UniProtKB/TrEMBL annotation:
Residues 37-92 are annotated as: Disordered. It comes from Nannocystis punicea. This is Uncharacterized protein. Residues 62-77 have a biased composition (Basic and acidic residues). Residues 37-61 have a biased composition (Low complexity). It comes from the Bacteria.
Length: 206
């Protein structure tokens, strides 16, 4: 029993010595191959920026990053009011400016009431035209064979006295002979005098 223990002990010591020797050889080989301590990597040499290397002159300031000296990021910050415009002293006015100030000429005043009256007259004329077209729709389309036609637009022009000066039929897709027939049909009507010449549109719908 003692002899077997001695054999195992000697075998263990031999294995430990072999492992230690192998470790020393590996460390020595690594040290020799690496040439000692590894040097620190050198910092890359400073070179021109890509834009400069391509021939583009670098700008002094980046326009994409605007900076304002008087910028205040506070949410309650109120921008400074623009400077007050001071009147030009009288002794520095030109002769033309002095003459205009002395006599600026007639003041042009916009007559909004006239525009209101015109719009009212246009709306009334449109209503009267559409009413006349609705009343005569059947007879006009029967006379011209356009019962199956699509919508036909009618533009009528009235004089200041309200009398019909002319009308024109137009559409998209109907036969030309139907439009020519409608244009040749007698069509008389009048509206309350609008005071000005105006044109309105209506629809002759089958």
């Amino acid at each position: 029993m003692t002899r077997s223990s001695d054999i195992f002990a000697r075998s263990g010591r031999r294995i430990a010595a072999a492992l230690a020797g192998s470790a020393v050889l590996l460390l020595g080989s690594w040290y020799l191959l690496s040439g000692g301590e590894a040097p620190e990597p050198a910092a890359p040499a400073a070179g021109p920026e890509p834009a400069v290397s391509l021939g583009v002159q670098a700008a002094d300031a980046d326009p994409a990053r605007r900076q304002f000296d008087d910028f205040d990021p506070r949410p309650d910050h109120v921008a400074a009011a623009p400077p007050r415009i001071e009147p030009v002293p009288e002794d520095k006015l030109t002769s033309d400016r002095k003459a205009w100030l002395a006599d600026p000429g007639p003041q042009i005043e916009v007559d909004t009431s006239a525009q209101v009256r015109l719009e009212a007259a246009r709306a009334a004329a449109t209503s009267e035209l559409q009413k006349a077209l609705d009343d005569r729709r059947g007879s006009l389309l029967r006379a011209c064979g356009g019962k199956d036609a699509s919508n036909i637009f009618v533009q009528a022009t009235f004089g200041p006295d309200g009398k019909l000066l002319g009308r024109q039929f137009a559409d998209h897709g109907n036969a030309t002979d139907v439009l020519e027939c409608l244009q040749s049909q007698p069509f008389a009507m009048s509206i309350p005098p609008p005071g000005v010449e105006l044109s309105v549109r209506g629809v002759l719908a089958p």
